[in-house]
Design a protein that fits this description.
Number of helices: 13
Structural class: alpha/beta
CATH architecture of one domain: Alpha-Beta Barrel
CATH class of one domain: Alpha Beta
Radius of gyration: 23 Å
Bound molecules: zinc ion
Order of helices and strands: HEEEHEHHEHHEHEEHEHEHHHEEHE
Strand content: 5-15%
Largest sheet: 10 strands, parallel
Distance between the termini: 92 Å
Length: 453
């Protein structure tokens, strides 16, 4: 009797387990089928699990690297975002990788790149990806430039991408924008909001603009995604190391049960996906562990709700910033019970410890970057910031290191780069290693011109 009484719950439990497993297998099986059906010839594709429609006017700023809100993702959902393109050689390879996995991603294009490679913009559109913009010339000074100049950067970038898209530009271009280097400013954000444009920060970078290996990019991407569990991954489709890392990143995401979400803007015909306010917070009210980085020389006012920190991208300057590389050390450089819940950071962001920013891999100047910045014959000022200021040091900047290709453009032209700085002039031809090694203050200005190979 006693044994029967004991056995019955066991049998019930077993039955429940079997039914649960069956449903689980059916569910995952049907999900796989759906993905495979969406991806002919690639039955093991990661796929795009859903499309999220967002209204930029309701949520004008997203990404927990800088803002209290981020996309309303479920656990194990990741949005792939790619900046700085298009650059045919690498962007095309990124597109092929995404196509093979039937993944739709979000791109942020630079106007000058769109002007130089308009076909690359149309390829993105034709592949069904979302196209946002990222200024005209990728200045790393938007946090301090006059607002009229910032507006021109934004407007010109949009105009250049629209020109590349052609007739249906208004329909194909999303009102999504990412500030170069994430170097935000109130006036810039206000202007974008007034135009109904959503500012995208990110939830985790993979440092793929720095001079690190592709396996390091892979490690950082996976570690940071795992640490937060969901969010927007910031990558650069112009980078060879990103091309090399992406297949492994996607394979690992699939193996670990992650799903890719594609984000599109709401339109009159396409209403925003219904959400609750708390879904726009990464971990509402429960988890307080800070993963993102802030600059060691913060130019923000932590007591002002409107003055969030300038972001992590200053940490590619080895002179003033240090980057904490994951995994986390056993002894955290900040208090483990980080006092600021993500949901409330707007009013109380803390200034991080100097030791948070460790940068063991020193970035070097890439002269190719300048060549690709301005493919046209015109002389172009890349930036006017002063190298001694850590927050926006030029030679180790995001974009210069982000673009590290060969000296040949997509049209077979050889590009020649000259750098003029306060203490001298550097001229680099072809693949000059000496020039590539050159660093220091002589990099205020990039003069770029094309000549035939
Ligand atoms: Zn960028």
């Amino acid at each position: 009797m006693t044994s029967k009484i004991r056995t019955l719950p066991k049998l019930l439990a077993h039955a429940v387990l079997c039914v649960t497993l069956s449903f689980g297998m059916l569910a995952s099986g049907s999900m796989r089928t759906a993905f495979a059906a969406d991806c002919p010839g690639h039955p093991d594709a990661l796929g795009t699990s859903r499309t999220l429609v967002v209204d930029p006017r309701e949520h004008p700023r997203i990404g927990t690297m800088q803002y209290p809100e981020t996309l309303p993702l479920r656990d194990h959902e990741v949005v792939l975002s790619f900046d700085d393109g298009p650059l045919p050689r690498n962007s095309d390879r990124i597109l092929a990788i995404l196509a093979a996995q039937c993944i739709k991603a979000n791109f942020f294009l630079v106007g000058e790149m769109a002007k130089s490679f308009p076909e690359g913009v149309r390829k993105l559109r034709d592949a069904g990806h979302t196209i946002g913009t990222h200024t005209q010339t990728h200045p790393l000074t938007m946090n301090k430039m006059p607002i009229e100049r910032a507006k021109a950067e934004i407007d010109d970038g949009i105009a250049s991408v629209k020109a590349a898209l052609g007739a249906d530009a208004d329909k194909s271009l999303a009102p999504f924008f990412r500030i170069p280097g994430l170097l935000r400013a109130d006036a810039v954000e206000d202007y974008l909001a007034s135009r109904g444009i959503q500012v995208w920060s990110a939830d985790f970078p993979a440092d793929d603009w720095r001079h690190i290996s592709s396996s390091r990019v892979y490690d950082l991407a996976i570690q940071r995604i795992e640490a937060k569990g969901k969010g927007i991954l910031l990558l650069h489709d112009i980078q060879a190391r990103t091309v090399a890392a992406l297949p492994r990143i996607l394979a690992t995401l699939k193996a670990r049960g992650y799903h890719i979400v594609h984000v599109v803007p709401a339109t009159p015909d396409r209403p925003a996906t219904p959400t609750e306010p708390q879904q726009w917070q990464l971990h509402p009210r429960s988890e307080n562990v800070a993963i993102s980085h802030w600059p060691v020389i913060p130019n923000f006012v932590s007591t002002n709700a409107d003055q969030l920190a300038a972001p992590a991208f200053s940490y590619f300057d080895a002179s003033g910033a240090k980057l904490l590389l994951f995994p986390l050390p056993k002894t955290a450089p900040w208090p483990r019970d980080w006092p600021v819940p993500v949901a409330d950071t707007a009013s109380t962001l803390a200034i991080p410890a100097r030791s948070v920013f460790e940068l063991p891999e020193l970035p070097r100047l890439s002269v190719e970057s300048f060549a690709l910045l301005a493919p046209g014959p015109a002389r172009m000022t890349v930036t006017e910031s002063k190298p001694e200021r850590a927050v926006t040091t030029v030679g180790t900047s995001h974009f210069e290191h982000a673009i590290r290709g060969k000296f040949r453009s997509g049209h077979g032209k050889r590009l020649v780069v000259s750098h003029h700085g306060g203490r001298g002039t550097m001229v680099a031809h072809g693949r000059s290693n000496a020039a590539r090694r050159r660093s220091g203050p002589a990099r205020h200005l990039a003069q770029v011109r094309k000549r035939s190979a």
